[in-house]
Amino acid sequence: MSLDPSKPQASAEEGVSRERAAALFEPERPPAVFHRPLLAEVFAHARECYPEECCGIMLGPPDGEPRQVVRCNNVQSVRHSKGESQLDAGHGFWIDEQEIERALRDAEQRGETLRVVYHSHIDTGAHLSQTDVESALGPEGAPLWPGVGHLVISVGDNGVQAVALFEWDSECGIYIGRQAREAD
C-alpha cells in the first residue's frame, strides 16, 4: 500500500489530543522521503501486526539513506505478562534486546548503521507519545541512538492512515516530526 501524495494526509495530531503527543510536529517542514520498497515493507508489517503495534529498524550507510528494513518482534505483551510494563503490544512496543543486537552486529559487518526505528500506533495518529519519547531518551535526556530517526505509522482497520518521521533537534532538546512519504 502506498499513500497517495495527491490526497491530503491525516496530520500527526489527528484523532489525538495534544497532551498525548510528546513531540512537536511541523507540517510545513518538507516531508521525509523514503524509497518505495522500504515504506511498502513497513506498511505491510504494520497491517499484518494490527491490532498490535509492529516495530523494527531501518539500516543504511552512516549519514546515508536507509536501504534495508529489519522486522522485529514486539515483546511488549511478554513484558506486560511478567509485570515489567503496564502496556501490552496493543498500546506499546519493545524490541527484544538480543534481536536488535544481532541485527546491529550484522549491519556493522556490512558497513551499515541504524538509521531509523519504526513502530505503529493502533487506531490513533502518527505521533510520538510520551512513552515513545521516554523510551528513546537516556537518563541524561539525550537520545539513546544519536542521529536515528523514529518513524511512526498510524494504522487502523482500513490500513495505513498516516506516517511521520521524528528527529532529535539538539538545539531545542526535543523531537520534531514531519510527514513521511515515498519517493516519486
Description:
This protein has 184 residues and is an alpha/beta fold. It has one domain (24-182): Cytidine Deaminase, domain 2 (3-Layer(aba) Sandwich). The protein is 22% helix and 29% strand. It is built from four helices and eight strands, in the order E-E-H-E-E-H-H-E-H-E-E-E. It has helices at 36-49, 76-81, 97-109, 130-136, and strands at 24-25, 32-34, 55-60, 68-72, 113-122, 149-156, 159-169, 174-182. Strands 1, 2, 3, 4, 5, 6, 7 and 8 form an eight-stranded mixed beta sheet that branches. A hairpin with a 4-residue loop joins strand 7 (159-169) and strand 8.
Features:
184 residues; Cytidine Deaminase, domain 2; alpha/beta; 8-stranded mixed sheet
Secondary-structure map with pairings?
Layout: E1 24-25, E2 32-34, H1 36-49, E3 55-60, E4 68-72, H2 76-81, H3 97-109, E5 113-122, H4 130-136, E6 149-156, E7 159-169, E8 174-182
Stretches where pLDDT falls below 50 for ≥5 residues?
1-20
**What is the count of helical runs?**
4
Oligomeric assembly: single chain
Topology, number of strands: 8
Which secondary-structure class do the elements indicate? Answer: alpha/beta
The outline comes out as globular
Q: How would you characterize the largest beta sheet?
A: 8 strands, mixed
Integer count of domains: 1
Q: How are helices and strands ordered from N to C? A: EEHEEHHEHEEE
Strand content: 25-35%
pLDDT averaged residue by residue: 89
| CA gyration radius, whole angstroms | 15 Å
* Known CATH architecture: 3-Layer(aba) Sandwich
Quick summary of this structure?
The chain has helices at about 35-50, 75-80, 95-110, 130-135, and strands at about 25, 30-35, 55-60, 70, 115-120, 150-155, 160-170, 175-180. The protein is α/β, with parallel strands linked by helices and about 180 residues long.
